[in-house]
Write a structure and sequence with these properties.
Helix 1 crosses helix 7 and helix 4 packs antiparallel against helix 5. This protein has one domain: Rossmann fold. The mean pLDDT is 94. The chain is globular. The protein is 46% helix and 18% strand. By secondary structure, it is an alpha/beta fold. It has seven helices and seven strands. It binds adenosine-5'-diphosphate (ADP) and manganese (II) ion. The site of manganese (II) ion has 3 residues, from helix 1. The site of adenosine-5'-diphosphate has 14 residues, from helix 1 and helix 7.
Length: 178
């Protein structure tokens, strides 16, 4: 079936959200308990140099979206990928069966970003991104609403609940061919 499931034997999941919301932590937990192949986009971009150089002011790589998507296409086509990235509109819509958007309360996120060493414009921009729900809106504009799942990510309990929620979603995907 090449319909909603994109002809894949296993689903692809994107975990997105503002930096510091806990994407990588959640993905590590998930990848330890479900058979998905974890891909940290930030690490991949660095490793395979899928960028057009370093942005001094923003202290980050300037992503080359074409190179990134070319690099990922074959792996994603096979299915069973768990992608971790702080954006979602650059990927083809057909790639994902579920788009998880993590959300963190402002004061909690602020402390996490400061602990990570963010300051100045980078800190402000990321806080504003979360306050304005930029990633959630981006997800809802880029994917069918039924595929977008916003989950709280403030505490360890939240993380455990999120692992459970996504594991259950995976089970129902597998037992529900259409
Ligand atoms: P991201 O990958 O979205 O940038 P990380 O997973 O690196 O976020 O998490 C940022 C920081 O917040 C880390 O120090 C991590 O331990 C902590 N953290 C992440 N998720 C949670 C959570 N649900 N509860 C408490 N702390 C968390
Ligand atoms: Mn991360």
């Amino acid at each position: 079936d090449m319909g909603v499931r994109g002809g894949r034997a296993a689903p692809n999941i994107l975990v997105t959200g503002t930096p510091g919301t806990g994407k990588t932590s959640l993905c590590h937990q998930l990848a330890a308990s479900v058979p998905l192949q974890y891909i940290n986009i930030g690490d991949l971009v660095k490793e395979k140099e899928l960028h057009d150089g370093w942005d001094e002011e923003y202290q980050s790589w300037n992503l080359n979206e074409d190179k990134l998507c070319d690099e990922l296409e074959d792996r994603v086509a096979e299915g069973g990928c768990l992608l971790d990235y702080h954006g979602c509109e650059l990927f083809p819509e057909r790639w994902f069966d579920l788009v998880v958007v993590l959300q963190t309360d402002n004061s909690v996120l602020y402390d996490r970003l400061v602990a990570r060493g963010y300051s100045g414009r980078k800190l402000e921009d990321n806080m504003e991104c979360e306050i304005m729900q930029v990633i959630l809106e981006e997800a809802r504009e880029s994917y069918e609403h039924s595929k977008v799942l916003a989950l709280p990510s403030n505490s360890v309990e939240d993380m455990e609940q999120n692992v459970e929620t996504i594991s259950q979603w995976l089970k129902s995907w597998k037992s529900n061919p259409s």
